[in-house]
Fold this protein.
Amino acid sequence: VASRRLVGRATIRRLPSYLNVIEAAHQEGQEYISGTVIAEALALESIQVRKDIAITGVVGRPRLGFPVVSLIEGIYRFLGWDRNKQGVLVGVGNLGSALLGYGGFAQRGLSLVAAFDVDPKRVGGDVHGVRVHHLDELPAICAERDLDLAVLTVPADAAQEAAEAITDAGIRAIWNFANAQVHVPANVLVQREDLSSGYALLSVRMGAGGLADEGR
Amino acid sequence: VASRRLVGRATIRRLPSYLNVIEAAHQEGQEYISGTVIAEALALESIQVRKDIAITGVVGRPRLGFPVVSLIEGIYRFLGWDRNKQGVLVGVGNLGSALLGYGGFAQRGLSLVAAFDVDPKRVGGDVHGVRVHHLDELPAICAERDLDLAVLTVPADAAQEAAEAITDAGIRAIWNFANAQVHVPANVLVQREDLSSGYALLSVRMGAGGLADEGR
DNA sequence: TAGATTGTTAATCGATTAACAATC
DNA sequence: TAGATTGTTAATCGATTAACAATC
């Protein structure tokens, strides 16, 4: 464990949802927003919101709350969303296409500049304005651009191979939506998303007879 | 807090990923699988796997590990995936279409029997074999069938209204992929998925200079 | 048998919640 | 001013990890 963890991952995971609330307040022209208000909007405790915000370094004002603009900037800065990132997407199936069509990434500092697949029916095409190349072209395209991450949306049985192509091409971060663990060199980051874990939680809660809290 | 939580949600979230590994072992004809093997495949600690499995009630055999078939059955039973559920999907955009096309739900006991949207270009159509109706028809279709849950994949600003249509139609569980919190009666379960929270984590880890662990 | 693995109890760690003085 | 809110320290809670006897 080289570097001690300073900020809990639970906190980091909540910050984007705060941003939704705070940006909505900004749109309505509000200058300040209190932890209490954010907490109510998200069904959280205000103390948790205050603690989480503390890690961004943004200071609030008693009675008023936190300055909306500074707060937005502070969260963006803390998350690294103020620095632009370039990414590619590998696997242009249903989910891959959906992510290419999601407009929110650009706002969060992520540009998906190219997509890759091995299916001849997809290669050469265009999905939501992003060109689809054959996976074999990944090294060449990586050489042209300085890429920060790859979004991995291939079927489970193709995940390991695709991850190797990605790391061989020099990309050092993978956002993995494939339904499989991938094994990569130690200097490559992998963030795995597992949709079925949320469904497991819902299913258990349904069977258990319905607690009322809005669960995470 | 009416009913004490017996099993941690972290445990429940991990069970589906165990299932992937165990089912793969089953396909290869293995009769037993040890906690150590599962842990290695998922980059976890074996003690964590053993503890998690304990809650399903499946007992293992020293030296051999856990019986694969019982383990699969035990996890399905614990998650409630052995009992069939019928659901609808509301919001046939990019993500909604992707989820309708995802084959894994049926195996996990979830049938999506109808989809809804308000866009005339989508209504009347067919997405991955699922009929798209106008949202106004939701009450009528719910009356015909006994529906367990709704998958919510509408834009953020339509989420609250759609959630109300869903609850008014008598559905008591919502799997919410919309980028917004929805407020529902206390007897309705909401499970929110927030894709940007995973991206926040990855982004911070990238900025922090690359810890090697495969993060959740 | 020897040794790997389970299952359980105890210890540690991290995250949430409570309490409250400081502030405007 | 009175009172809502911040920011911080302490207490609680839950989840992970360690330790180890029991088992085959």
Observations:
- Confidence is low (pLDDT under 50) at residues 209-216 of chain B.
- Strands of chain B lie at 32-33, 66-67, 85-90, 110-117, 126-127, 130-134, 149-152, 173-176, 189-192.
